[in-house]
Amino acid sequence: MNAVHRAGFYTSADDLRSDVRAGAEPDEETLVAYLEAAEDVLASPSWAADLLDPELPRVCENAVLTDGEWFWPAILPYYVRRYHVRLPDELLARIRGFGGQLPELGEAELMAATRRFVAGPG
Known about the structure:
By secondary structure, the protein is of the alpha+beta class. The N and C termini lie close together (10 Å). The chain has helices at 13-17, 28-37, 76-83, 89-97, 107-119, and strands at residues 5-6, 39-48, 60-66, 70-73.
């Protein structure tokens, strides 16, 4: 579990648009709830904007969340809910494998995950 798996770190509207789907996954609310319940590993006082809707410059605070193995920006659950963005198959399998319930992370596990993320792509 030393690799750094990332999802949803979009750098442009085109990048995001490539993952937008026409419809939701059947268990989309479970996916969103899992993503939202994750632990913060990094946070910023700045705000994330919706890359596809410039009228929404303050969607949520900028932060990076984790389940101990995967990392994603705090805006990803919003994108899944609003645009039905496609999550990586491996992340979908992990969420569904846990029955939508986030694994509990002890302080040591969370600190180790944070160090891995900060260290780089892995």
